Amino acid sequence: MHRLWSALTLASLLTACGGGGAGGTPAPATSAALTFSPDKVAISAVAGTTATATVNAAVARPADFNGAAVYAYLVDSAGVLLPNAQLVQDSAQSYHATLQTAATLAAGSYQGNFTVKLCRDSACASQFPGSPMQLPYAIEVAPAGSAPFTASSAAPLTVTMHQGGAAPAPAAISVQATGRSWSAASGAAWLTLSSTSGSGNATLTASYTPASLAPGQYSTAITLTAGDGLVATVPVSLTVLAPGFQLSSDGVAFTAINGAPIASQDVQFATDNAQATRWSAASGAGWLRASPSQGYTPATTTLSIDPTVGALASGNYSTSLTLTADGITPRQLPVSLKLVRATLLASNAAVTLGGTYGRDFSPRNVTLSLNTGTNQWPWLLSAVPAWAGSSAASGNVGAAGSTVTITANPAAAPAGSTTVQMVAAATVNGDIVTAPVALTINKDKHKLLPSELGVAMSGSPGWSRVTRRVTIVDNYGLVPDWTAASDQPWLTASGSGASLTLSADPSTLAPNSLNYATVTVTPTDPAMAAATPIRVAFWKGTASPTAPVSPHPLYRNIVADPIRPLVYAHNGGTTIDIYNVYTGQLADTLTGFGGALGDMAVSADGTLLYAYDLDNSKLEVRVLATKAVLARWPLAHQPDRSSRLTLLHPNGVDLVALNDGSIYNSAGKLLASLPIQGGTLSAAADGKRLYVQDEDGTAVHLATYTLDYADLAGGTLFAAQLPAATHLGNGSAGQDIATSADGSTLYAASSTPTQCSVLGTNDLGTLSYLPSGNSAPDNVEVGSDGRVYCGVAGKSAAADVWVYSAAGVLLQQLKFVPVGRQLAPRQMVISGDGFILIGLNDDGVLNIVPVGP
Questions:
Q1: CA 107, CA 45: separation in Å to the nearest integer?
Q2: Which one of 3.40.50.300, 1.20.120.140, 1.10.10.10, 2.60.40.10 gives the CATH number of domain 2-238?
Q3: How many CB atoms lie within 10 A of CB 645?
Q4: Is the pLDDT of residue 499 over 80?
Q5: How far apart are CA 234 and CA 151, in angstroms?
Q6: 536 half-sphere exposure, CB direction, 13 A CA radius
Q7: Residue 350 and residue 310: Cα distance in Å, rounded?
Q8: What residue stretches are annotated with the BACON domain (predicted)?
Q9: Domain 448-540 has CATH 2.60.40.3170
Q10: Which CATH number fits domain 245-340: 1.25.40.10, 3.40.1010.20, 1.10.3430.10, 2.60.40.10?
Q11: How do strand 41-46 and strand 133-142 relate by DSSP bridges?
């Protein structure tokens, strides 16, 4: 039976064997490739059990191996062995094998030969020189139940020493010989036994006395013979090496980041014969140093690396340290060096000046770091554009980092987004390592932003509002610098910084007339864009209203003009009536709408009216001065009576927001779709917050969206929900919301609680309440003068509109609708000058109620 020894056995541990014919078992052409000790396997066993024997093998001709793969086969044609023979490499040229007899052997004597083949391939089509080989065996199997006779050592007796050095440690031989006498003999003079005879179980000590041996390989066996003829052998192999250096390492490997400190390594060495011998060490490369480089053994030398010698680049290097001493073969210690390329990192691989919106030109810091520990190396920063500057263009950098401050020069940058690639480069020995930094400048159009684009003024006996203050903001956050001029002599514009004051002198104006003026705000910086003109309308009346007026037609929806004393009303049809709120008279009518009308809004400067066309899923835009249709925008969703809209002006750009989440620009282009599904909308005066409150739900849900618009990438709208100000509010059945002029407060009307809520816009938390007579609020508005109007659904209430100051002080109560009727939800508005309150009853009656200054 052929047995192929596994990858952990002879096949993988031998490095080569020799010759042989193609197939079969031809006679060896040369002497055997291996020599075995003992040269005959002698094993004593007991039937029904296994016995173990050890055989040493020495390579006869190492040159035959030559690194080739070897496939070893043990042919046990008699089946006397278990198929688990293990061969263990003890040195480059010596091995030992452990053989176990088969437990199935019957009592008796077994003699024969094992055949060992050393093959070049798994099929053994070709064998190495000296193969196959014969290994004789003699196995004595005692009857079952007999006491075994064995001799073994705890570890294979395969040892190595150096000539003149200390002898190997003695080895213990365990003898199992119950009921037997025995004798023991060593096969060589260099191996002595503590006892040569005995009986029963015992332990022998085998001692090595190799002082007279020359360098070479020696093999022998300890043979034990029992009185009944059984034999047990223990093979012994001794290798005597010529005197040489003994090193703590067969090689030293350094791996480090190029440019970083490299830890030194110690090498201990002595001579084999333990004699004090003078030595010296020589390095094969300038970057390797040994200290000390001479002395007496035993010794320790410290190896250190200096990559600055020759300015080594990253990569792999090798050399050797040569140790020499009188009478001893020189020894070369391989030394390898792997230098890993250093990494230069920028704390920000991309730096943006101008911020997200192109208006924040604060400096930005970039920290360069190099993974070279405490070692610092020179760096340079290149390709810095004209529109940026750096606090340093060069320096030294290590792991602690080097910080560079990048500043913006927006005057030298074009509008929009511009990106360049700056490069930081560090020289580290023979390497140049780089870290690119993408530098972007976002530059929005620089402009002035008036807080109001339309201003309503009025004057009549006892009532007047002839002065208005408008805030001017520089969208870069700078102190505004500008001049202002009015195109009409009755209106003057003055001020500086953040404050523009408009003052009217109506003395020259005709009675009961509506007069217009345009105020132009011009920045002193010629590079800035001109501000959007401010349109001003002045109503000069001959009498102040004293009693409510209720025109006869019935309506469903109203909206106030922000600059004129006008209110626009429709009944859900295709026309819009326009009333003068001071005279209570129908002033004009807009006709020709394409379908049933829904919610409406008027632009902040009073130039445009927006209205839902419910039948045709459009938003119609009318020019109020000419009543002409400017556009009809197709909508993404079918609007209905619950569809709402509001107008915003973030960063001076006109936008239209719908309560389906759509946001359009002034040309009707859809810019964003927010996750809004119905509800009432209200926008902050600067257009940068959009608030949503659901309508008529079992709970009140409030949501806030931040908005901004920048002239980047052709114009970009930035919109996102503000989680801190998006949550459930107090009460139920939301009805209406309105924002204060300064944007700090959101007022909310809902069926419960029975008072209007005052919410902080940072988180929409409740700040206070505005009592409303324990009736359910369904309207809330903020006038241009800051007064807050809380309207309620109170059919039998003594008052249905409660007027408060911006500080929350109750100013007056108004009875808006007759008993038995109530305000229609979200159908209360304030005239642009803040003096007239207009609203619809739940039966569609339009009420125009004077409030006064």
A1: 9
A2: 2.60.40.10
A3: 21
A4: yes
A5: 7
A6: 30
A7: 35
A8: 161-226, 262-328
A9: yes
A10: 2.60.40.10
A11: parallel
- For residue 103, the one-letter residue type is A
Beta bridge partners of 576: 590
- Are 78 and 92 contacting, i.e. CB atoms less than 8 angstroms apart? no
Residue 255's Cβ-count burial label (10 Å; 0-12, 13-18, 19+) is exposed
State whether the Cα torsion 353-356-359-365 is positive or negative.
negative
Q: Which two tokens stand for residue 820?
A: 């038995």
CB contact at 8 A, 248 and 298: no
Residue with tokens 């801190």: 724
* Residue given tokens 């009140």 in the structure block: 700
Cβ of 671: how many Cβ atoms within 10 Å?
Answer: 18
Judge whether 743 and 684 are in contact, CB under 8 Å.
yes
Q: 519, 558, 559, 557: which is closest to 538 by C-alpha?
A: 519
Q: 332 in the Ramachandran plot: left (φ > 0), alpha (ψ -120 to 50) or beta? A: beta
- Lowest mean pLDDT across 69-73, 250-254, 363-367, 676-680: 69-73
The answer to whether residue 497 scores a pLDDT higher than 60 is: yes
Residue 742's SS3 state is coil
* Polymer length of the chain: 853
Place of tokens 């010629």: 526
DSSP-derived 3-state class of residue 156: coil
